[in-house]
Amino acid sequence: MADVLKRVPVREQDPKVRATNFEEVCYGYNKEEAVEESQRCLGCKKPKCVEGCPVSINIPAFIEAVKEEKFDEAFKVISESSSLPAVCGRVCPQESQCEGKCIRGIKGDPVSIGKLERFVADWARENGIKPEAPAEKNGKKVAVIGSGPAGLTCAGDLAKLGYDVTIFEALHKAGGVLVYGIPEFRLPKDRVVGPEVENVKSLGVKIETDVIIGKTVKLDELLEDEGFDAVFIGSGAGLPKFMGIPGEQANGVCSANEFLTRNNLMKAFDENYDTPIVRGKKVVVVGGGNVAMDAARTALRLGAETHIVYRRSEEELPARVEEVHHAKEEGIIFDLLTNPVEIHEDENGWVSGITCIRMELGEPDASGRRRPVEIPGSEFRIDCDTVIMALGTSPNPLISSTTKGLEINRRKCIVASEDTGATSKEGVYAGGDAVTGAATVILAMGAGKAAAKGIHEYLSQK
Amino acid sequence: MFKILEAEQLSANVYKQVILAPRVAKSCEPGQFIIVRVDETGERIPLTICDYDREAGTVTIVFQPIGVSTYKLVALKAGDEIADFVGPLGHPSELVTGDFEEVKKKKIVFIAGGVGTAPVYPQAKWLHEHGIECDIIVGARTKDLLILEDEMSKVGNLHLCTDDGSYGFKGVGTAMLEKLVEEGKHFDLCVAIGPMIMMKFACLTTKKLGIPTVVSMNPIMVDGTGMCGACRIMVGDEVKFACVDGPEFDGHKIDFDQAMKRAAMYKTEEGRRLLKYQEGATHHGGCGNCGGDK
Q1: Once rounded to an integer, what is the mean pLDDT over residues B253-269?
Q2: For residue B84, which of B132, B54, B45 has the smallest C-alpha distance?
Q3: In sequence order, which ranges of A134-239 are alpha helices (DSSP H)?
Q4: Cβ distance B185 to B206 under 8 Å?
Q5: I want to staple A444 with a disulfide (CB 3.0 to 4.6 A). Which of A75, A279, A283, A432 is the partner?
Q6: Interatomic CA distance for residues A200 and A448, integer angstroms
Q7: CA distance B94 to B247
Q8: Is B97 part of the contact surface with chain A (CB cutoff 8 Å)?
Q9: Beta carbons of B176 and B163 less than 8 angstroms apart
Q10: pLDDT class for B272, splitting at 50, 70, 90?
Q11: What distance in Å separates residue A229's CA from the closest CA in chain B?
């Protein structure tokens, strides 16, 4: 018997090999490994892990089913709470959610809840098990704007309750950030995202791509002309932020959104696709979040020496620990406590380098993190041909600027109740990045779930 | 999938297609654009709207092939389908959304170059339908490259010009504008749409003449909905996103040299040679108003 304090290790692609391909990094557990890991779960009466889960999956119950090798039963338990388990098992920050609360973690490794969830979801897909569509429709129509994690979750939950749900997606492919943002090596598109979207469709949800709400159709028209009884806005994050430093308009400077969209959604890494991408020789990614890690690891796979430039220290990196660890293993160079001040252009207008300044940590700021302060005279230059800005986004104005009576806040995010998703406009609910600003897949799913409940309560009383 | 109802070659390098897209046809306005993706492996390409028919549910696009995706589009015929057709994107022209009484008072001149003639047409047509007469200068390198002459002549006072004098006035569009002003015409507003270099020179001329000028920018885009930031341009000292803030901007505030440099970002040496051979200008291309690619 293995050490009960240690989790069953998960098999991964060798860092040297994976640094040159877009295949998935983590292989996940096989049946034996999953069952072995499940034995570590203590089956707490008052499970802390469930409290840590934004969509409140009954974690001890599904793990109990795994122990008994009743994987279809385990999938059923997860499906009661989550429409996207194969996605969540891969991209949730479990260390700060379910696993962060696991009692096992006090004296050893917490139970590998994420990897178990992933195993169950993958097993269900490979064995052709789909969530069940509701027996009866209630005849009420709900429009969901955006097919990302918030929209898919909200749509799935409402469909299970018998609503007639249509998702409107602006891009040509459903999935939102799951298809344009998160790279193939973390979240395979055809193998994982596609089938999860199909599962939501198998609940009866319709998806109309190429429709931009606010442009193609106004939100008010959905309610007034197209007969929808309620609308959920899950339109996601918006315009990428730039630093406003000299040289930012040089060729070879792009946002992480652009770089990742070209590569993930438009498959620029694949020669068969028409979309071009800058394959830099030396790439600097500015930022320290998950998106920065995704951009850096993508640039690396396209053949570049890749640096992460981040103004705080390693401890403050907002990215998931696992992502930072994987990035380091693959050979990403971290220039921490470093902040760009100017981008240089060559005679053709292309990036030739970036001047950065060293930082040190001062007093804690409003976020509680120690504020980075410039060290005078410490400027130095990194030669590079590509700079990718991964600094977050500011909300997209397309819906808020074209919808009557929809309140937005100071940061131009849509104002919505955390409990119900209700906005200032009757019948209109919102959640995900459009409300919170850039956050995580699972938080968006939690918001989609809360809004589905809110919409159900609203339409039940109507 | 979106069906092509008509496909026609307008000149040596400019093509017209009528696409069945009822949702877009219902909501689009002059000045806006759409994005097409020809097939599964195609790029998302922003193209201007040349005309629309709300009842028939159709949108007319006019474009010039420059990359693989646009060449694939050219190869399609009436009855074929394209994978994606999404829009309308960007803001409608201020002529359409602005205070009508104010617009009515204005003497408006359009300067159109090459494929840029296409997005000028619905604006001039809209003005004509609302009883506002305008002047339209359409320029091309040579007679065979002029497009939409019949349509344009019905919606405004058309002034045609060719670089080589093979048709109409001999000279570039801005020379035509200067001539009109010398002859005593007064303009309160100029709308210049065409290759970037043409718009740059149009703006230099109108600045000199003191005519406020609106240009329509067509930079590199990916999603077109305000997500990727590829289309950012400097307007005055502000960064603007052409897809959600534009595509129309105050031409006197645009940094055209920088915009042209950015537009060339993905042109490989080979691509650039192809481009030079085919159109001699940027992606609008082919007007010859400007003396060729720089």
Answers
A1: 81
A2: B45
A3: 149-160, 177-180, 194-202, 219-224
A4: no
A5: A432
A6: 13
A7: 11
A8: no
A9: no
A10: very low
A11: 20
Contacts B69 to A, Cβ<8 Å? 274
Residue contact A239–B234, C-beta within 8 A: no
Find, in chain B, the residue whose alpha carbon is nearest to that of A213.
B87
Q: CA gyration radius for chain B?
A: 18
A215 close to B (CB below 8 A)? yes
Q: Is the peptide bond before A183 cis (omega within 30 degrees of 0)?
A: no
What does the alpha-carbon distance between residue A42 and residue A161 come to, in Å, rounded to a whole number? 33
Please check whether residue B153 touches A, CB under 8 A.
Answer: no
Paired sense of beta strands A164-168 and A206-208, if any:
parallel
- The one-letter code for the residue type at A163 is Y
What tokens appear for A312 in the block? 């705080």
Q: How far apart are CA A99 and CA A115, in angstroms?
A: 11
Q: Determine whether the interchain pair A240/B266 forms a contact, defined as Cβ–Cβ distance below 8 Å.
A: no
Quote the minimal CA–CA distance from A273 to chain B in Å: 4
Q: Enumerate residues 32 to 61 of chain B having a beta carbon within 8 A of any beta carbon in chain A.
A: 37, 41-44
Subunit contact A257:B67, Cβ cutoff 8 A: no
Q: Where are the alpha helices (DSSP H) in chain B?
A: 22-27, 68-74, 94-97, 100-105, 117-129, 149-155, 173-182, 196-209, 242-245, 256-263, 269-278
Put simply, the answer to whether A398 touches B44 (Cβ < 8 Å) is no
Query: With pLDDT > 70 as the criterion, what percentage of chain A qualifies?
Result: 100
Task: Average the pLDDT over each of A271-275, A404-408, B98-102 and give the range with the smallest value.
Answer: A271-275
Task: Report the chain A residue with the minimal C-alpha distance to residue B261.
Answer: A349
Minimal CA–CA distance to B85: which of B17, B10, B9, B148?
B17
B237: closest chain A residue by CA: A244
Residues of A in contact with B23 (CB under 8 A): 211, 216-217
Q: State the distance between the two ends of chain A, measured CA to CA, in whole angstroms.
A: 58
Q: Within an 8 Å CB–CB cutoff, is residue B89 touching chain A?
A: yes
- What is the tens place of the pLDDT at every residue in A63-114? 999 999 999 999 999 988 888 899 989 988 898 899 999 999 999 999 999 9
How far, CA to CA in Å, does A344 sit from each of A284, A349, A381, A385, B235? 13, 9, 9, 10, 21
Of B256, B141, B128, B157, nearest to B201 by C-alpha is B256
Q: Is the dihedral of CA A179, A180, A182, A186 positive or negative?
A: positive
The residue among A210, A348, A433 with the most chain B CBs within 10 A of its CB, best to mutate, is A210
| Minimum-distance CB partner of A349 among B87, B225, B261 | B261
Given the DSSP bridges, would you call strands B157-162 and B135-140 parallel, antiparallel or unpaired?
parallel
The pTM of this model reads 0.88
- Asked if B220 has any chain A CB less than 8 Å from its own CB, the reply is no
**Taking CB atoms and an 8 Å cutoff, what residues of chain B touch A172?**
37, 44, 83-84, 86
B83 has a chain A CB within 8 A of its CB = yes
B69: nearest CA in chain A? A274
Neighbouring C-beta atoms of residue A218, cutoff 10 Å: 17
Amino acid present at A441: V
- Residue B249 three-state SS: strand
Cβ atoms A55, A78 nearer than 8 A? no
CA A291 to CA A295: how far, in whole Å?
6
Helix axes A59-67, A71-81, angle to 10 degrees: 170
**Six token digits for residue A451:** 């809004």
For residue range B110-133, what is the model confidence (pLDDT) as tens digits? Answer: 999 988 999 999 999 999 999 999
Contact at CB, A239 and B83, closer than 8 angstroms: no
The pLDDT, as a whole number, for residue B267 is: 66
